[in-house]
Amino acid sequence: MKSSMEKPLYGGQAVVEGVMFAGKTHSVTAIRRHDGTIDYFTLPRRSHPTLAALKKIPFVRGIVAIIEASANGAKHLQFASEQYEASSDEKQAAEENRSKFGLILGAAVIGVLSFLFAKTIFTLVPALAADAFKPLVPGKMGQILLEGAFKLALLLGYIYFISLTPLVRRVFQYHGAEHKVINAFEAGWPLTVEHVQRASRLHYRCGSSFILFTVMISLFLYLFVPTDPLWLRIANRLALIPVVLGVSFEVLQFTNKLRDIPLLSWLGYPGLWLQRLTTKEPDDDQVEVAIASFQRLLDLEAEAERKQAVQ
Fold it and tell me: Which UniProt keywords apply (predicted)?
């Protein structure tokens, strides 16, 4: 069996009734429509030379990767949300009457802004809440720990409550299907429903792990900046967001490299524990969609390699 580190590293995300996978040259979404068929959405992956250069710089590359992933993911989420509900006739009419470029550009901008807004909220609310308890917890260390507790409670509470809705629960099932496909592929297993279902729904490179790392690393960085007065506390929290994201990305990559080392694999356990909330066991139909998406991506990647070899 091949080690997971000998294979290309693919990423993905769950969407409404489907799964998106991203590779080196393409990203592909497959969704299950109401009539039972599987529909696809494919985008080539192109990076501006400047961005490609930035993605080679440690700590900076994480910020660039996150922005690109947010923009790209928003395009696929837009497709999944619209196409799942549309009939074949409605789908054709929508494609004829709407500017595809405008749709993609708008979704990308919204995706990036939504990520930045959410990150800002999850940074500011815990800081304000901890400051409100300063009469009871006056020390800097106590304030940082309290802020971290509020941040973690806000994160876990948000995930728990949205998971109660049927739609999000199904998205979490597709999230589990995405991980199962990646785990099966990296283990060298055949990409069949039977084999993929045997794989774990948890994965070291998951974005859920990344989010938890941002909480942990932010608490460490806050030790080196002042917490008083409140305006300065808020200012340095906001200023540190890019630093937290960059460091968290590197930690995520590092823990993934250690996953096969028994004595060090525990470093990724906190993220895996969080994934027990953000993933659910998928059914066979959901796994079939995830496999279809990933197989389409592999075919496109192989075709791109063949074309590059000919040139």
Answer: Membrane, Transmembrane, Transmembrane helix
Helix (H, G, I), strand (E, B) or coil at 26: strand
In the chain, the largest separation of any two C-alpha atoms, in whole Å, equals 70
| pLDDT score at 172 | 93
The DSSP result for 88-114, as a single string, is HHHHHHHHHHS-HHHHHHHHHHHHHHH
88 pLDDT higher than 50: no
In this predicted structure, what is the pLDDT of residue 116? 60
Q: How many residues does the chain have?
A: 311
Residue ranges covered by each domain of the chain = 4-310
CA distance 272 to 159: 15
Give the closest residue to 215 by CA, choosing from 247, 176, 239. 247
13 strand-pairing partners: 20
Residue 91 is predicted with a pLDDT of: 52
Nearest to 14, CA basis, from 139, 163, 226, 191: 163
